[in-house]
Amino acid sequence: MTAGGVVTSAPLVLIDLLTEQGVTGTSYVFCYTPLAVGPVAALTENLAPMLKGEAVVPLALEQKLQKRFRLLGPQGLTGIAMAGIDMAAWDALARSVGLPLCRLLGGEPRPVPAYHSLGMGGAEAAARDATESRELGFNTVKFKVGYPEAAGDVEVIRAARRAAGRSLGVLVDYNQSLSVPEALARCRVLDGENLVWIEEPVSADDFAGHAEIRSASHTPIQMGENWWGPHDMAKALSAGSSDFVMLDVMKIGGVTGWLRAAALAEAKGLQVSSHLFPEISAHLLAATPTAHWLEYQDWADPILQEPRKPRDGHITPSSSPGCGLDWDESAVSKYLVR
Q: What is the pTM of this model?
């Protein structure tokens, strides 16, 4: 549960990119609602004919797909489909040369600091979740907030630290649920709680609003998971909207979009964190100069042969060729939506 809506399931579209050389690149995309699974799957599959016979050159494929959707736009379902194909192409390329993706990108499979991303269930649930997160090895957690009164937000934070220790690092995410005046008031209240950051207090496309909040808040402001590509990111950075950068590999444009976004962040001296997709995000952060935090969610674990598991509050990228996404076919059959 979030202040911006309820997510009751993890609707995923799995993508296999088959090549004539017998190498298969894999990826998945998160559709947020089951209503989008069919359209995203159909759109992705409909792109297959225009890719048939093309070399697995991600930059060239990205340009071809961007041109195809120039008039429709590179965001929403089209952006999701293009990013899924891009991720699968990079996976295939890394597998073809026998390298983990991070090594192909110039990095190494090193442990990446991770926080446990939690929901919104009140103070009692926060205390329980924080304790369980500590037992899993996390020293930092994120809570969804945006209760009717600011006191509810504060109580969640304090309950978690009473249960799991005062040293517990805490981030909060409003999921775009506040107006700018409300956000300014709540940030003043939260400034005394020693938070790592406050995430998306207002609408994700309100760059000016985020900039106003950032200038008044002593706590760092985080945004970026809803940027549709590096161009959105550039506009947000120009407005001074965020102290940090959070990239969603699916929305930012796949691996190709991430690399461009990471370059923008480095030029501005901004630390980069990930949103969802811990398996591939671990590789990307390991190759990102200003890497910050990985958001850990285990939503895809049930269908993976070797899920990434936290250890001492870190996630280490798979050392096998590609992104480390290999389907557990029996589990896929179990969860398949027909």
A: 0.95
